[in-house]
Design goal:
Number of strands: 50
Number of helices: 1
Largest sheet: 6 strands, mixed
Distance between the termini: 18 Å
Structural class: mainly beta
Strand content: over 45%
């Protein structure tokens, strides 16, 4: 029997298997790893500040920033590919310098929109999809300032801005590249200046939500929210400001897939319990047209004013509300669900300290309940500033919030200290991959830097059957490793040894595989060298057919019994699949005979004629061996009348010799 192709010494195979085997739980996906910031632009004194970083759920996205060009600040965009910026370019050719910072929105398929303000007003440029360039910048709002933009997962979007003390908006239909102004203004007047600037988000159902600050007749500033229903604003707005209380400012907002639910965070001057006031960071959930009770985002008492809070939600209203408190503490509260009070938020949790700079923390929260918070910090007053981050694997079904992972430093000291005045932003995919953008100021110049937290690839699942197969080069098939920031390569291990590397979830060995049972495993590796190992599987190869023996005996005369002896042998497991069945097709129209024994003896009676009997054996892999016998069956002779001899006796007759010869035969050992 043929046994060839791949043979390895057992000792070598065992050693390789031990070296390559995963430790701990054998096929569990690891959480991921931090990768320190890599320069995107620079070193150059012309690199100025981070504007906005936005990543769609499918992992596409970009970072918008300001850079000096031709002596003026202009909006630039770096497009992300797998968490790495692959292309950088200016998006406002021929326009005057930017005022403030650019803002950005990203949607699945690589759709991007960037907006910015100049002395002329608010401009926007749209990239329709991956691989396409940004369209020309178009003036959306003459005289507008402080824009905010967002795209829904479907690709539609909203843009808001402030102009002459009023808040205005525009709508970007799905697939369009031009914004359509929404008629009228959103506010009641004296709105949108400075820390009252507007913010906007777009829900998966196509509804937008704008928030901003506006002053009443007494001079007190309020935080107001109003929905945008494609080309029209909602009939009413909702005031998030706490009564009794003082002025509120710096709103931030995030919305669920169902636009009925959103979180709004802001600062407000509130009673400090000692006869004075303190600027506190608070958040309120918007349900329908009304706000729930406020939630404090840092513990009491507070030593001074809080920083501007940030909100990051996933599509199910699970998320993180983050603030830098007075004294440099970084606090995060986790929104667990969209159920009624009282258990709305777990926290606040102290994540870290920033004794020098304002930490300006920013948080993200993915669909898989992976959260990340990044912030500025320093070892002490006067020490170089760096960027740090912590992650959370939340479990909303658990009563207690799981602990955050330890701190990781995202900035590379070799690139110089971080410039906190240049801004910090972060965003992530639906799977928890996150990019963080900031600026480092080295001795050779300034750099825009992007650091990432990259989830390890998903565990491949082996799909090739373990049944016996009669192919010496079987297809080895597995499910692709889930990784939004691919590509992923696969190493195939055969019998514990590295055998091949491929980028597709299918491999066909170029050489025949020896008969027998083989173990195999697939190791997925992402672009940053992170690996995930499949469980070990088996496949079984048997390409060798059984050996068949057969013989007929008896008279080839119609009606007379003809005896057939049929037998077969096949190597059994683990080297072979073993014999499955014997089969006799008599060739005369009678029913075939099937047996699951290794040897049989049968009798059959034929009519007169020439018949071809087909004898076969099949193993469990489906390998057949076939032999054919041609049988000539004669009619029985009529008995002759006896003739009397000289002595009155009948002479004896002679029996004719057996006729019929075997033909065909495809296997060795046929007899």
């Amino acid at each position: 029997m043929r046994r060839s192709a791949i043979s390895r010494r057992a000792a070598v195979a065992a050693l390789a298997a031990a070296l390559l085997a995963p430790s701990g739980a054998a096929a569990q996906r690891s959480g991921g790893s931090f990768f320190a910031g890599a320069p995107v632009d620079g070193p150059s004194a012309d690199v100025l500040a981070v504007g906005d970083l936005s990543i769609a759920r499918d992992g596409t996205g970009a970072v918008a920033y300001t850079r000096r060009d031709e002596g003026l600040a202009h909006p630039f965009v770096g497009v992300l590919d797998g968490g790495t910026v692959k292309s950088v370019g200016r998006v406002d050719p021929g326009l005057p310098g930017i005022v403030g910072k650019p803002v950005l929105g990203a949607s699945d398929g690589g759709r991007l929109v960037v907006a910015w303000a100049t002395g002329d007003g608010v401009y926007a440029a749209v990239r329709p999809a991956t691989g396409q360039p940004f369209g020309p910048p178009l003036l959306v709002a003459p005289g507008g300032a402080d824009p905010s933009v967002d795209l829904a997962v479907s690709g539609l979007g909203y843009l808001v801005w402030a102009r002459a003390g009023e808040i205005e908006a525009a709508y970007l239909p799905r697939g369009a590249t031009t914004f359509t102004p929404i008629p009228g203004v959103l506010d009641g007047g004296d709105a949108g200046a400075g820390s009252l600037r507007p913010r906007v988000v777009a829900a998966a159902d196509g509804i937008g939500l704008a928030v901003w600050g506006e002053r009443d007749a007494s001079g007190r500033s309020h935080i107001v929210a109003r929905r945008l229903v494609r080309g029209q604003p909602s009939a009413v707005s909702a005031d998030a400001t706490i009564d009794p209380g003082g002025s509120a400012d710096t709103p931030d907002v995030a919305i669920a897939d169902d636009s009925s639910f959103a979180w709004v965070a802001f600062r407000e001057a509130l009673d400090d319990g000692a006869g004075g006031t303190a600027v506190r960071a608070v958040a309120r959930r918007l349900r329908g047209s009304a706000f729930d009770a406020p939630v404090g985002l840092e513990p009491s008492p507070v030593a001074g004013p809080s920083g501007a809070p940030r909100v990051g939600l996933n599509g199910r209203t699970l998320g993180m509300l983050t603030v830098g408190a007075a004294g440099g503490g970084v606090f995060t509260s986790v929104a667990r669900d969209d159920a009624p009070e009282p258990q709305l938020v777990a926290g606040p949790v102290l994540l870290g300290a920033s004794p020098g700079p304002d930490p300006s923390p920013v948080g993200t929260f993915a669909e898989n309940q992976q959260g990340l918070v990044a912030w500025f910090t320093a070892a002490g007053p006067g020490s170089p500033i760096d960027v740090r981050a912590r992650t959370l694997e939340d479990d909303p079904s658990a009563g207690q919030l799981p602990p955050f992972a330890p701190e990781a430093i995202l900035s590379d000291p070799a690139l110089g200290p971080v410039d906190p005045a240049a801004g910090l932003d972060a965003d992530g995919t639906r799977a928890g991959d996150v990019a963080v953008a900031f600026v480092q100021n080295g001795v050779d110049g300034r750099r825009l830097v992007v650091a990432v937290y990259d989830r390890a690839p998903g565990v491949p699942a082996l799909n090739t059957t373990s049944n016996w197969r009669s192919r010496a080069r079987p297809d080895l098939v597995w499910s692709p490793a889930f990784d939004l920031w691919g590509p992923v390569s696969y190493q195939v291990l055969l019998d514990g040894l590295p055998y091949a590397t491929t980028t597709t979830p299918l491999y066909s060995p170029p050489l025949p595989i020896a008969d027998g049972t083989h173990s195999w495993q697939v190791i997925a590796t992402d672009r940053r060298g992170q690996v995930a190992r499949s469980l070990s599987g088996t496949f079984r190869v048997d390409v060798t057919p059984p050996v068949l023996t057969s013989s007929f005996s008896g008279q080839r005369i119609a009606g007379k019994p003809l005896k057939l002896r049929l037998g077969a042998s096949d190597l059994g497991s683990p080297a072979g699949s073993g014999l499955a069945q014997l089969r006799v097709d008599w060739g005369d129209g009678s029913l075939p005979t099937v047996s699951f024994q290794r040897a049989i003896t049968l009798e059959h009676r034929y009519l007169r004629g020439t018949w071809v009997a087909r004898l076969s054996a099949t193993d469990h892999a489906g390998n057949p061996v076939v032999r054919e016998w041609t049988l000539i069956i004669k009619k029985p002779k009529k008995p002759k009348k006896k003739k009397k001899g000289k002595h009155g006796k009948t002479p004896a007759t002679t029996k004719p010799p057996a006729s019929g010869t075997p033909t065909g035969g495809t296997a060795p050992g046929v007899g």
